[in-house]
Protein 1
Amino acid sequence: MNELLKLMQTRRSIRQYTDQALSKQDIDAILSAGLLSPSGKNVKPWEFIVVQDKDVLNKLAEARTGAANMLKQAACAIVVIADTQKTDVWCEDSSITMAYMHLMAHSLGLGSCWIQMRCREAQNGQSSDDYLRNLLDYPRHYSAEAILSVGVPAQQRDAYDLPDVNGGKVHFDKY
Ligand SMILES: Cc1cc2nc3c(=O)[nH]c(=O)nc-3n(C[C@H](O)[C@H](O)[C@H](O)COP(=O)(O)O)c2cc1C
């Protein structure tokens, strides 16, 4: 089977991590995958804030109600923000870069999970974006799309079966 397809079939969202640190080489490889992602008109509106400081990771976990607790265990978080004045497709561009980094983390044997920030609320009632801007100090015309939590996996999840994921989603020539 094609290697990339195999990787895609075994990729899962991993939310439990050991307390092992990540190597600089692995973090660099994940960031390179993000930097190599395509963007509309090649504008690349995104920037990445890499967080490894435990205190900051714990504060990042409060950027969402409920869905971000895995950041307390994660060795690293990559916050994807974008310059919203550069392009009207910053959200699509940021999503693609997230997907590339998520898949690269998996290819390195690491676990990772997308944590949504755009259109979401922090535990203190602020928007997740305002909360993150206060915490991380990025400019007002930047917005956060999502955070990728990354760590050495402490859970195993089943691979997908291609016939199962295909069911009814693909149409040829006509709906
Ligand atoms: C746009 C988007 C937003 C997501 N937001 C969250 C989130 O806030 N918290 C979380 O734990 N998982 C989040 N996920 C992960 C999904 O829950 C996960 O991809 C989905 O359940 C399928 O599982 P899999 O990734 O293992 O295939 C998000 C995924 C995407 C693509």
Note: The chain has a mean pLDDT of 97.
Protein 2
Amino acid sequence: MFGEVVFDPFWLAKPFLHALDPEGAHELTLCALEANLVPWQPREDDPILATTLFGRPLTNPIGLAAGFDKDARVYERMGAQGFGFVEVGGVTPRAQTGNPRPRVFRLPEDGAVINRLGFPNAGAAAMEARLTRKGRPTIGFGINLASNADSADPADDFVHLARRFAPYADYLTLDVSCPNTANGQVFLDPARLADLLARLGAIDWGPQRPALVAKLSPDVADELVQRLIATLLAARIDGIIVANTTRERPAGLRSAHAREAGGLSGTPLATPSTALLARVRDLTAGAVLLIGVGGVAGGAEAYAKIRAGASVVQLYTGLIYEGTALVTRIKRELAALLRRDGFTSVAEAARAAAT
Ligand SMILES: Cc1cc2nc3c(=O)[nH]c(=O)nc-3n(C[C@H](O)[C@H](O)[C@H](O)COP(=O)(O)O)c2cc1C
């Protein structure tokens, strides 16, 4: 009669966190996770959610998107928060401070965030030291790579990072779609992208070749999407993440910060990023694994991405508004949606989309 009543401490913490500036709140959250002070989410996953990511078994297909754990400080805590996999970074070869503050803005009325961080991070050596010390997490693991803002040869940065981090992860993401740095955009030129992929293809990986994944921008016109996908397919990329944040400002944004420069994430990105995902599914025809990200705020959005061809799904912005109880809710709702439509697994639903 009363339904399920679950006490979620995030709702006590949220007014305090949101009274802080977004970066301060984020730092506090990371500190709480590091100190293991964030209550765990239920770990037992519904068997219908079990799947694989580049050969690695996952108990569920919901991942933490890049940008939350830029310096690999808390990735090992993410299994206990309910995630099936986690992507750390973006990491650049050398430490950098990023753009001037303020550079992250909440858009609460829109369930969104705008950021123009520009990859502040402690650099590859600091990340590698943490990965060496802490080891792999119990869940799936990706590392998001990016070039330094002042790099003369951004492709060289990616090659360096890919070599360096190959032994540590299930997959490496090439963030070739960051809207907030000049170097984040150079690989939107298919010729530059082809050159980068050729240089990565020439690496002698030994026995530890990681899956390579490219992250797309939602802001490219369809003709360029086709050329970028053709370039990625020709280089036999293993996966594609759709999508990064958008420079677009959809009509109807209500928040005071809607006109801030930077990349928009969260609810307004759900429809365009899922539409692009479906387009990429059609262009790739099952040849690569697809990871759907953008505006996942419930099981419905996660399911929509799976039905548009995503094998797994990621999220970030939803956590800012709902905490990690969101992960538990998404999993419950997703399992119900899969059953409603007669699927017995996530992979089956994603495959059905591809045919
Ligand atoms: C504050 C912030 C920082 C981010 N940093 C990165 C990053 O370093 N590398 C990257 O590939 N994506 C980054 N992203 C993009 C997310 O990984 C994701 O693609 C995007 O936010 C859409 O998902 P969401 O709507 O669930 O947040 C960042 C997003 C936010 C909000």
Note: The pocket of flavin mononucleotide is lined by residues 65-67, 70, 89-90, 104, 113, 115, 117, 119, 144, 175, 215, 244-245, 265-266, 269, 293-296, 315-318 (CB under 6 Å).
Protein 3
Amino acid sequence: MRRPITLLALASLTLSGALAQGSDDCANAQPITGLGPHPFDNTSATPTPGLSDCNGFPVRKDVWFLWTAPNDARVTVEVCGQTTLETRVAIYDGADCNNLAQLTCSAIDCNAGSNVRFSSVAGQQYLIRFGSRSVGTTGVGTFTLSEYIPSLNPNNGRYYEVVAENLSWTQARDRAANLTWLGQPGRLAILSNQTDLDWVINNLSVGRPWIGLFQDTNHPSYSEPTGGWVWLDGTDATFTNWFPGEPNNNAASGGAEDYAELFGSGEWNDAEENHTSTTHYLVEYNVGGFGTNYCAANPNSTGGSSAISADGSQTAASNDLTLTASGLPSNSFGFFIASRTQGFAGNPGGSQGNLCLGGAIGRFQQQIVNSGSGGAFSIQADLSAFPDPALGTVVVVPGDTWNFQAWHRDAVGGSTTSNFTNGLEIIFQ
Ligand SMILES: [Ca+2]
Ligand SMILES: [Ca+2]
Ligand SMILES: [Ca+2]
């Protein structure tokens, strides 16, 4: 009589495991593979004791999955339309339940269009911890894993991504720096000219994100509320787009407001570091770009300042260097200049801009270009024939350091003048 009961008990256990749709315990996390929908059921799940690591909140009545990533990608976990349960989802790198390395965690608010997203590496495993947001609720449904592709801004070659996670500015900055896309690290977006800002507002649903702008209280021009605002790349905020009455350094808590958030209108507000209404953060990936910008550009007639960037290859032998100037006034002529030496001269020859090169300055004069309607131009720079005022042309070799800038025409107050981008230093390999 005992034998059938034992078998029945065993069958019941096996059946229960197969239909678990997520394991109650991390140590037995249910293996899943592939993109697409995966069923969950946390109706009989119990809490993981002491694990309130979702920005200070627990993932209640959690069930665990161990997902093996099919490829390198940004991956979105989405539940909206697939369950009535208000969920909270945490993602951990690897399979080690004793040393959980959290990548992200968030409540998913379908009214706000939010989701949870993380970077995956082919063949690596990730723990997905799925549970309820509110006390006393449980549910069933599916969550869907899909590949996410950040949006390319063709004007500047950068990819953008809005992340829905309610973090402090500093937490968001650090999270962004740990994201990767096409091999490039992310950063909170630098919207240092009208062109880049307009593209973001016209092409992305931004929510209410943090951006890469903060007030440096050690800056020589620091003063409240408007002085000392700098971007994460170290450049001063010469172009600004504050909401009327902002910045006001006037937090509801009574504290300082030294961090910038972006409104859907494109306008900015200074906010306190832990501002809870800032529910998203805006990430940019400077894919393909290399070199180091230096020497700030003065604002041009767009209200913003222009910037120079490089892509292609940093290897001299590849002879593949594209120089791009963006944030320019539309339909303006210009050209690129190069020197082995950095320098600084304000308003040279009556220009509105700063010359950031010194020494012998050569001009890629055969390549006069026009910024067109997009306010940007670029050239292929021939590394076998760099301009040199004394020698005519020189060949770029590994170990060479070169500095670049673009000069461009501008029209200010009805008179024709000129301006410069910031500088860019490249060390060739
Ligand atoms: Ca559990
Ligand atoms: Ca302030
Ligand atoms: Ca404010």
Note: The longest strand covers residues 401-412.
Protein 4
Amino acid sequence: MTGDIITYDYFGSLYINMTNRCDSHCVFCIRDQEDSALGGLWLQEEPTREAVLEEILGQDLGGYEEIVFCGYGEPTCRADDMFWICDQLKASGRDDLPPIRLNTNGHGSLINHRDITPELAGRLDAVSVSLNGSNKEEYLRLTRPGAGEAAWEGMLDFIRTATQHVPRVVVTIVDYDKTPEEIEACRRLAEEQAMKRGIGFLLLTVGLVCLLAGCQGKDLTAQAEKELGLDLSGGTVVTQSDTHSGNGDGLSVLVLRWEEETLEQQLAADARWQPLPGDLLCQTLFWGVSDETSRIGPFFQDNEGGIEIPPVTQGYWLVLDRHSQAKEGEDPEELLHRYSYNCTAALYDTAQRTLYVCRLDT
Ligand code: SF4
């Protein structure tokens, strides 16, 4: 069944769907999937900007992390309407208005035949640009833009100029069929664009965070003992790695194994540890979750220092949210909705007597 869905709740943010149009034809685009996967996002008719504004303002905005101009197609195909809506929202005086973000393929200036990045200023609080390729050939193969090669340079230029006008620019890739080397190349390319402007920003993939290489050698077992409040002395280190760099960002992974079930007794006696199977937060962090349109997680599996955690059905898990925005008593899933992560997640596999401790800081 199809219907015109203009706004929808996605992972705690309010997503805005104003158009099906796009200047590209990405090989992974969900617009090309069967009707059943469209879920009503395919618009029979583009809503007027007034209708979009009315629908947004009709909601309790305080419950959302962000308002996101996203899809179904490319939102900058309606850049002028989007800017008008942003202006109206900012002028509405609503004290529950969350930050506004644009998810874009970065072709907005090409599509509108002018540099639209200055017009983002004061309207968009953040912009996420899809990079999707570490070089022109790969980018064109995956995204198949109507403008051809001009789209590659246009997208890179959009990233560079957007950083002058928007407080936060995030570059994303869809982890469609990329090797770790290709993901690393994307990360480097994003950094180069940032460095050309002297501005830092994050490179995030869908469900995969690319991390800077960093110093090694911390005593991860001692750190885990202190942080988790456990006696880990009986465990043998199976593997450990740490990419935390001088700025504190990075991922550390520690895997310990026991010959006897000594750790299980400690975990069973500690109310912070929950028995498996874990809830959505646990599933997302350790193994990732998908719906018909997207995927988020796993968080601790990347091309550098990460680990693929095998399915675990029996055991315990614990997540410590160390983020400065974390509040006592809030829903633990809030950590999934932040721009950055500071968390420690631990998982104990009873059958294998194996403990995984992952510490992520971005
Ligand atoms: S840019 Fe987005 S909407 Fe356009 S074809 Fe690619 S995935 Fe689809």
Note: The first strand starts at residue 7 and ends at 10.
